[in-house]
Amino acid sequence: MPAGEHAKSVELRSVCKRFGNVTAVRPLDLQVEAGEFLTLLGPSGCGKTTLLRMIAGLEAVSGGAILVGGTDVTELPPHRRDTSIMFQDYALFPHKTLADNVSYGLKMRGISREKRNAAAQEWLARIGLSGMGARLPHQLSGGQRQRVALARSLIINPGVLLLDEPLGALDANLRKQMQGELKHLHREVGLTFVYVTHDQEEALTMSDRIAVMNDGAIEQLSPPQTVYDRPGTEFVARFIGHCNVVHAVVSEVGDGHALCDAGALGKMRMAATSGLEVGVPVALALRPEAIEVSPDTEMHAFNSAMVRVSDVRFTGSTHVIGTQATDGQEIEVEINRREAPTRLPEPGEEVTVRWSESALTRLRSDR
Length: 367
Ligand SMILES: Nc1ncnc2c1ncn2[C@@H]1O[C@H](COP(=O)(O)OP(=O)(O)OP(=O)(O)O)[C@@H](O)[C@H]1O
Ligand SMILES: [Mg+2]
Prior knowledge:
The structure is a single chain. This protein is of the alpha+beta class. It has 9 helices and 20 strands. The protein has a 6-stranded mixed beta sheet, sandwiched between helices. The longest helix has 18 residues, at 172-189. It is elongated, with a radius of gyration of 25 Å. It starts with 9 loop residues before the first strand and ends with a strand. The relative contact order is 0.11. It binds adenosine-5'-triphosphate and magnesium ion. Residues 19, 22, 24, 42, 44-50, 198 line the site of adenosine-5'-triphosphate.
């Protein structure tokens, strides 16, 4: 299959979904580029599956329009949309052989048995299961079943592959391995992937762009690094990698910067963003790994504070140090193990924390 030949774009225009009086998806716009790996990321119940099922045509929209490859498919049934969906529980036919499972979509499209078998053999080889076409699903491991489900979704050559938590049932190691395989496959076939997960690490490693969803809406749509480094809202900041969020009040607006008063955390100096005036409340994201901790008590005029260590946790690759300012505000610091001082601070100890101006991101207030 030549890379990217069949990839289609997906466009959502004011698409929304209500179940009775439950609003699962608020009216939203989304443009997925042809060949893109776009992830819908968000907590349980935020509307990810509903949105994916509407794109697939398995759920009718309550309003708005869906376009696949520029064609309005809002009223078309699933098999006429050029999309294919893969579910978390694989949904393989238990009594059909792997070959029949893989080639099922071709059968539905009236392709001859001979051609179906040839295509199934080709896909089984591609997913590392050559010669296993006569087996039944229960004779496979979880990872192998997952690959069969993937082959079954891809054999019909869809323009868009929709994946709903496809790795959710796998253990951590296998999950990592399959993440790599999926990413590789995406590059190889060049299709458009719309991928659903509630695992932020998975979203960060795999996606071209991430749509962070909260309560039926997309709060931010950006490449992984931007979502991580420049979260747009408090929700995104906290959902992606446990970010510190500091509430402060603007106390001075200078040339290209602003100072904000953050109580016992002192003055926060940041590059001025528009709309800042003295007295305006702001929420600031401060990444734990962007903070330095030192035992000295030398204070700067801004972007540093005296805090007391409340706990020290070891995560494997990092040490996480929980601290508290005198007014109770909590700041978490994460130190890469390789850069950790020979003696880590201990609970109860007073330390100085410092960060640079660029470590601060102003957040939009949540809806
Ligand atoms: N058929 C339905 N009838 C009524 N409410 C529904 C239906 N399907 C989903 N919902 C509700 O819509 C909201 C969104 O559900 P959805 O399954 O899209 O969430 P999700 O983000 O996929 O969550 P999870 O991560 O748990 O799979 C939830 O409040 C859910 O209870
Ligand atoms: Mg779901």
